[in-house]
Design goal:
The chain is an alpha/beta fold. It has helices spanning 24-38, 52-57, 79-92, 104-117, 223-237, 245-249, 280-283, 303-306, 315-328; strands at residues 8-12, 15-16, 19-20, 41-48, 65-70, 97-101, 120-131, 134-141, 146-150, 157-161, 177-180, 212-216, 240-243, 270-274, 291-296, 309-312. The relative contact order is 0.12. The structure holds flavin-adenine dinucleotide (FAD).
């Protein structure tokens, strides 16, 4: 049987204003697995301005090179510029695979990169398996109900991986070579300009990074109740908050909180769903959670089919009791 040819992977790191997004480690884990199977190597590329701490946080995960594109022209993640810088690196380094963890950032940048490289592109990959001298990819489709097994054409493959499918690897003392990437701002596309970022800091962790997520559904009647019950319970547990689309559509929660097929995909250790029915589109965003707790007054609610622990009752009665008990604990 043919052996897969040596791989040379390029992992695109994601960060928020200089703070590493831990979901990046899923891509690193995927790259490590491919290299273990093929004997290849991987590099990690960090783009931005003032990103030394991000590169430092990624040192010790087995990358051959940590490529640092640190330039004022990259201070905001504008996809046209980022894709152009990544394209140059992928070509210079003869990358055979370029990958990032599935997120709004990678969904913005990587399809543009694939177009620039004239490469094929896959999203939401859950496994990469050597197959003769090539690879077979598995990816989730239709809200997680179908696993597609896919071959990609072309010498270079661009894809995003599902964070839940690749656990963060341990850090070692072995350091990568840190390589500064020269960025010529005058050659970068300027089809998009950064205007402003309107952010309301919540002081809570991001749902894609948190160990615990407390999420609310249509049972919550307004944003005050959401903050009091969902936010209140989350704060007692040091958890992130999430929301079903029903609340986003009703203007009760911002769409940054939406979990599901058209929102964030999370896989925390514990997910507590408050007054959420468990529609398939919602489950697509949280069913890889280790332990699911559901509180719903309808014993027939579909979320109970996947919940590890279920409580039948009124969230307006149960959640204040939980918060009071946690206050005493
Ligand atoms: C293309 C497409 C994409 C979508 N993407 C998403 C997505 O990304 N995320 C998402 O969430 N949805 C998504 N949806 C919508 C999805 O189909 C559901 O409509 C939505 O998830 C329902 O939200 P919900 O569970 O909060 O509301 P409902 O389905 O109305 O459920 C509310 C639940 O609360 C319970 N309840 C009511 N009052 C109380 C109370 N006082 N105490 C306890 N329980 C109570 C009820 O028994 C019920 O089970 C999508 C739909 C489509 C068509």
């Amino acid at each position: 049987m043919n052996q897969p040819r040596l791989t040379n992977l390029l992992v695109i790191a994601e960060h928020d204003s200089g703070q590493l997004k831990l979901a990046t480690l899923a891509s690193v884990a995927c790259a490590q697995r491919v290299c273990a199977a093929t004997g290849g190597q991987f590099d990690i590329l960090v783009l931005g301005e003032g990103i030394g701490p991000v590169a430092e946080a990624l040192n010790g995960y087995g990358a051959a090179n940590l490529l640092v594109a640190d330039d004022a022209s990259l201070n905001h993640p504008l996809a046209d510029r980022y894709a152009a810088v990544i394209e140059t690196q992928a070509k210079t380094r003869n990358s055979t695979m370029v990958l990032g963890t599935a997120s709004t950032f990678s969904k913005d940048v990587l399809p543009r990169l694939a177009a620039l490289l004239d490469a094929s592109m896959l999203s939401d990959v859950t496994s990469v398996v050597p197959d003769g001298d090539d690879f077979t990819f598995e990816r989730v489709m239709f809200a997680g109900n179908v696993i597609a097994t896919v071959k990609m054409d072309g010498a270079i493959k661009v894809f995003t991986v599902r964070a839940a499918a690749f656990s963060a690897p341990p850090k070692s003392d072995q350091k990568s070579a840190v390589v500064a990437v020269n960025v010529d701002a005058s050659t970068l596309p300027k089809t998009a300009e950064f205007v402003s970022r309107d952010e309301k800091p919540s002081g809570r962790p991001d749902a894609t990074e948190a160990r615990i997520v407390v999420s609310g559904g249509r049972a919550l009647k307004n944003s005050e109740d959401f903050e009091r019950l969902v936010g209140g319970l989350a704060d007692k547990l040091g958890a992130a908050v999430g929301s079903s689309r029903a609340l986003v559509d009703a203007g009760i929660t911002p769409n940054t909180l939406q979990i599901g097929q058209t929102g964030k995909v999370v896989a925390p250790d514990l997910y507590i769903g408050l007054g959420i029915s468990g529609a398939i589109q919602h489950l697509a965003g949280m069913k890889d959670t280790k332990i699911i707790v559901a509180i719903n007054q309808d014993a027939e609610a579909p979320i109970f089919e996947i919940a590890d622990y279920g409580l039948i009752g009124d969230v307006y009665q149960i959640v204040p009791e939980m918060i009071a008990k946690l206050e005493k604990a």
